[in-house]
Amino acid sequence: MEEDINKEVTLIPESDQPEAGAVTIASETGSETIHANQADQHMEVHHHPDLQHKPKKLKEYFLEFIMIFLAVTMGFVAENIRDHITEHKNAQILAQSLLEDIKKDTASLHSLVGFGIKKFAAADTLLGILHTPQNNWNTGNFYANLGPIMTSLPFESTDGTYTQMKTSGTLKFFNQSLINIINSYDVQLKKTQYRDDVENKGIWVLADIIINIVNFEVFTDIRLKRPITHDMYVKINNQETIDKLINLITMNNQFIARSLQEYKVQLTIADKLIEAIKKEYGLD
Questions:
Q1: Nearest partner of 190 among 266, 123, 125, judged by Cα
Q2: What is the pLDDT of residues 156-191, one digit of tens each?
Q3: Element (H, E) at 110
Q4: Burial level of 58, CB count in 10 A (0-12/13-18/19+)?
Q5: d(CA 206, CA 195)
């Protein structure tokens, strides 16, 4: 152990001591003297001239502002473009669904117009019967024409898509001209449903008299298109009842006429809406 230490440490005689300000480093291979000024040079910290702080010019600040502004603006524009594309896709889906709903409505309205015309004609025929002497009445004809008058078939709109758009706020995806037609359709729908409700109430008023003078089992046979096996009677014993019946049927006939009028207006707007949707979104 002592031998190893003696190998690593070299004793320097006093006559060989380095001059003041010098440092001697001894090693197995010899010793090296480094002067203080050399050590100072080694320990000196050098600063790169590029890292020295220089004040920015106004032009540089302005360019930085422009770059940041452009980056924010482009991000905003890109986000708007993405939103627009998403809205257009959603509008396309909603337009297709709304188109199918309106087509169902038009089919129903055409059917109701046909039935309304049948009811109107039946009321006229029944009024003609009531204005003739009772012993000339054809009972079968009486029942055949009374049946449609006593039937209520109100218009039920397929409004699922429109209701969804109103509650979710997606109606804004459509352009304003299309929204105007949709709103017109909805306004007219309220008028149509109101006239249906009035007509339905008129039928119930008429039913208060009809229920006392005819056999409703016969109406069931007629509706189910099966042989009439029940007694077909008309129990009217006084002119007062006939006059009241005439007035109520006349009143209901006016209700039917008003319902027909609203159906036709509803159809006109529906056709206009279908055409606008098809044109705007290229649908069939």
A1: 266
A2: 999 999 999 988 888 888 999 999 999 999 999 999
A3: helix 58-130
A4: exposed
A5: 17
Express the helix, strand and coil content of the chain in percent, nearest 5 each. Answer: 75, 5, 20
Locus of tokens 């024409």: 145
AA identity, residue 50: D
User: Which helix (H) or strand (E) is 67 found in, with range?
Assistant: helix 58-130
8 A C-beta contact, residue 253 and residue 123: yes
Question: Tokens standing for 238?
Answer: 């006084």
Q: Are 113 and 260 in contact (CB under 8 A)?
A: yes
C-alpha torsion sign, points 207, 211, 216, 218: negative
What is the Cα–Cα distance from 55 to 57, expressed in whole angstroms?
A: 7
262 and 268 in contact (C-beta within 8 Å)? Answer: no
Distances (CA, A) of 253 to 42, 140, 216: 116, 21, 21
For 230-274, write each residue's pLDDT tens digit: 999 999 989 999 999 999 999 999 999 999 999 999 999 999 999
CA 159 to chain centre: 11
* Domain layout of the chain by residue ranges: 9-43, 98-281
